[in-house]
Amino acid sequence: MLETRPISGDGAISLGPFDLHRLVGRGGMAEVWAGEHRAQRVPVAVKVITAAQAKEARFREAFQREVQAVARLHHPGIVMVLDHGTVPEATAAAAPRRLAPGAPYLAMELASWGSLDQAHRPLAWPDLQPILLALLDALGHAHARGVIHRDLKPQNVLLAAPWDTRPGVKLTDFGIAHAQEPVDAPTRAAVRPEDATSGTPMYMAPEQFLARWRDLGPWTDLYALGGLAFLLATGNLPFQGKNLAQLAYDHTSRPPPALPEALALPRGFEGWLHRLLQKDPRDRF
């Protein structure tokens, strides 16, 4: 049962077993709060759908898809989900204009080092290589369990303390993820046509721009990874259209640019990037 005590002794908002201390992020669909588990004193990030979006079924459904997607995933390179629920009336009443009654929330581990969006670019190869390997490993785990992210970008790669030989990157924000049958299943679940163009235009694959929803798959994430890798290696995106129409043309029609010759990158890296950025999904690997 959810905790109904709305305000803790230190002024934090109490939501279920968590105390929310400060708002750390706001997006189009949800807000993210930093807090901690009240009994265990474990730092957490709690994502709560905004009051405006909580009123619309499509946003509640997208949030529920995120819960269902990440529930399948248990990997050190993917943010771990701790709990989920809805905001009680008492909590919303005690925090007016901050939390909406009935709004879904998702509690996750807190990655306290920011995101790749805040990392200095370009990255030197010794720093870039382990990040790319960790992301490939995390995506492979998700894809093997039938989950396609569909919105890979620097803001959705969080940074935590490194451990063992891993760089501490954590893939997050599966809000527009789409669940397929696992790769060894006999059939494939279809993407909803209205969701085919969801994503961030700078990293979207051609099949997303063209709304070819039957073509979405693990290769869609590989395309986004190619764009992200290009950005981290060079400091610039492969395609830099000034508006959505130009970006759509570039991603669907123009070949990816060559890497600057001055970069100290291993032989074959450019060829790998260009394979990820192929227009035909069948050519990406």
List the defining traits of the structure above.
globular; Phosphorylase Kinase, domain 1; disordered N terminus; single chain; 285 residues; 10 strands
Describe the overall structure.
By secondary structure, the chain is an alpha+beta fold. It folds into two domains: 13-109, Phosphorylase Kinase, domain 1 (2-Layer Sandwich), CATH 3.30.200.20; 116-283, Orthogonal Bundle (Transferase(Phosphotransferase), domain 1), CATH 1.10.510.10. It is 29% helix and 17% strand. Strands 1-2-3-4-6-5 form a six-stranded antiparallel β-sheet. Strands 7-10 form a two-stranded antiparallel sheet. A hairpin with a 2-residue loop joins strand 1 and strand 2. Helix 4 packs antiparallel against helix 6 (218-234). The longest helix is centred in the middle third of the chain and has 20 residues, at 125-144. Mean pLDDT is 84; it is low at 1-9 and 181-196.
CATH fold naming of the largest domain: Transferase(Phosphotransferase), domain 1
What is the CATH homologous superfamily assignment of the largest domain?
Transferase(Phosphotransferase) domain 1
| Proportion of residues in β-strands | 15-25%
Query: How many domains?
Result: 2
Helix-strand sequence: EEEEHHEHEHEEEEHHHH
Nutshell version of this structure?
This protein is an alpha+beta fold. The chain contains eight helices and ten strands.
Task: Summarize the helices and strands and which ones pair or pack.
Layout: E1 13-15, E2 18-26, E3 30-37, E4 43-49, H1 51-54, H2 57-71, E5 81-86, H3 89-94, E6 104-109, H4 125-144, E7 147-148, E8 157-159, E9 169-171, E10 178-179, H5 206-209, H6 218-234, H7 244-253, H8 269-276
Antiparallel strand pairs: 1-2, 2-3, 3-4, 4-6, 5-6, 7-10, 8-9
